Amino acid sequence: xxxxxxxxxxxxxxxxxxxxxxxxxxxxxxxxxxxxxxxxxxxxxxxxxxxxxxxxxxxxxxxxxxxxxxxxxxxxxxxxxxxxxxxxxxxxxxxxxxxxxxxxxxxxxxxxxxxxxxxxxxxxxxxxxxxxxxxxxxxxxxxxxxxxxxxxxxxxxxxxxxxxxxxxxxxxxxxxxxxxxxxxxxxxxxxxxxxxxxxxxxxxxxxxxxxxxxxxxxxxxxxxxxxxxxxxxxxxxxxxxxxxxxxxxxxxxxxxxxxxxxxxxxxxxxxxxxxxxxxxxxxxxxxxxxxxxxxxxxxxxxxxxxxxxxxxxxxxxxxxxxxxxxxxxxxxxxxxxxxxxxxxxxxxxxxxxxxxxxxxxxxxxxxxxxxxxxxxxxxxxxxxxxxxxxxxxxxxxxxxxxxxxxxxxxxxxxxxxxxxxxxxxxxxxxxxxxxxxxxxxxxxxxxxxxxxxxxxxxxxxxxxxxxxxxxxxxxxxxxxxxxxxxxxxxxxxxxxxxxxxxxxxxxxxxxxxxxxxxxxxxxxxxxxxxxxxxxxxxxxxxxxxxxxxxxxxxxxxxxxxxxxxxxxxxxxxxxxxxxxxxxxxxxxxxxxxxxxxxxxxxxxxxxxxxxxxxxxxxxxxxxxxxxxxxxxxxxxxxxxxxxxxxxxxxxxxxxxxxxxxxxxxxxxxxxxxxxxxxxxxxxxxxxxxxxxxxxxxxxxxxxxxxxxxxxxxxxxxxxxxxxxxxxxxxx
Length: 731
Known about the structure:
disordered N terminus, transmembrane helix, calcium:proton antiporter activity, phosphoprotein, NaCa_Exmemb, antiport
């Protein structure tokens, strides 16, 4: 888009040049309108008069820096660490990461996100009826049995006589937990006769804020700690002893069950907070200090402190919730890893569960581990220099896939089963096809729902496309060579016409490379495989040097850590470099264990399943480890940053061909396996067709949901072909 030059002011020779450049810079940014609010950066350049002030990236720098920013999309980060992470996202070969690696300033967050982390003790103005679908769901899942339990505990406490005050408290809480919405739990003012308690509380409050917890929703003041009542005799009461022995443990277990269940359901995290705060605060208060009131009967300001005030039980935005920078889904799936490892290595004889279940659990455990590996890589790269980031990304970028492939090849070699090698080839092809068709196609469709037309950097996408053409040609060169010079051998042939010169119907045909003691393979195909395995990584390094050093300007990106006035924040990283390194190593170790379990228990699925082994390899084994990357791509697309969505798929596909396959070939030199770089015709045709179609779609640098739908539909058509294809020979 041609932007007219700014009007030249009179009497200033430098004014026209500087004003027009900065004005064009802002016009270019405003032309690419996009707000990456929750993504950790945002496109930002306010309209300012020419020759008066500079764009945000240039506010604190010289005119030469301003001129260097001209025509580039400026991404403004909150701090230098986030700026480094955003810059790494646009570097070829680096892992693209959407989530923050540092804590975001509270004032920069949206109101929706602030509500997720707020305490359940804020009284708001009346927002309508509390009878909603989510609140009714709470009543059906938790409310009725929690209320019934409180009634039973109240009866027990009344029977003890000494615990009658707690019986009245449980009776009030029974009505509260049946329908807590629109009600308030308060801590009433302490009577003068118990001033010592207030002094204790004041001393604890003056000492500062104590523990904090994401589940409780905020800081927990120290005045709620039990030791505060020790000096006043509260814990020496006979009624308190009866309460702690008979009533409190039962309610703690009930609220713990409700808390865990609600937390795992994610959207019901407000219920988890409600139960947790009740357990550690309300139930440990003296009963005479707890008052349950209806909100309509309460006038603001309330007398006393508000402990609990809940309006709705369900919030669909809790998928954004994070604990120490870790997404809530990754937190919830972490116990699955422990369960998988315990069942896999303790129940070796399948007494507790079947091999199919263990395989499924091992495969699902790979997803959170992939997330932790990606988060650790992004954290280390953002806090380190370019060399360290490049080494970490090159070393651990493909560790998830390579771990599974190598363990599968080792098991196949030990059992003498060629099926494992074919499964690995299917998984490699499935990753390539999925990242070329499904990942960008899905991102286009979902991003196209919000944005009518999305644009991306066709030059940077062209580099990945060229490398894909080169890598696909190199990977399948030994296969094409074997088709030309190999001898076609069929397992069984039948004469259809009963004529010796008629037509024959043959089955299980393949090109034999081992004729004459393998002369063709060892003398021609194997040297070609080794040559290709050396050339592909060399081409990958050249691509890195081209995109990161000599032609880095093709990404058209300027990342600035300059802040707007009044928004100066120091970087508070979620994971330090050492912590990220420890998590990276532990996740890699657990990944190896899960991959070993998956390959150990995949045999029954391969032998007893009626589904083609091709289909299992190109779908489950190929795409499940890439789910965190797919989620990142979708989030980038929703924020109108389709360039990164496309680069995620392209980089994975390039790494499959130029790094993972050569590493597997190198591994077979030191540990002989059945893996040969000769693929079936179906893999060759599917891969080449996918790369050609992807390049055709990406030629013009813009796309919409229709083009994304085409890519996704072609991917599903290929999956249908694999589904109905016969199993590979040897399986």
